[in-house]
Task: structure prediction
Amino acid sequence: MINAYKKYWAGYVDFKGRSTRSDYWWVVLCNAIVTFVLEIPFMIGYGQFMYSVVSRASNFTGADAATGATAYSVQPGDISPIFVIGIIILAIWMLANILPLLALQVRRLRDADFHWAFIFFYFGLPIVVFILNQFPTRDGDNNQAVPHSSED
Result:
């Protein structure tokens, strides 16, 4: 698992090689775990935000409506710094993964003997790319990929 993840980051701009199914799924699992851990500050901040909005709504009276306030209005102190930090961390993580994930998808498509251009389905019909990634390694004659090593 660790080796597959190291290869993922080392080959973040390698669009010419191949990636096995196991390499692909280990990366998906590692990315899911890392994303979950990085979401913790966001989830804590979001929970604090929702608690402040809902607790204010439960104390809402008709007199508050006369001032123009609504039951679920957001006040300046509702969004905590941990919520903002969580959003920033997640945004950086997602942006850092765009190019390596595209490269991994292209390598996986080539390993399954599909043309790399199928990656464009990822932007409109991602289920197509997901299904194509399930195909086993094939040594086809698409003349677009270098043979992969036998290490897994």
Remarks:
- The radius of gyration is 23 Å.
- The CA atoms of residues 86 and 92 lie 10 Å apart.
- The chain has a mean pLDDT of 81.
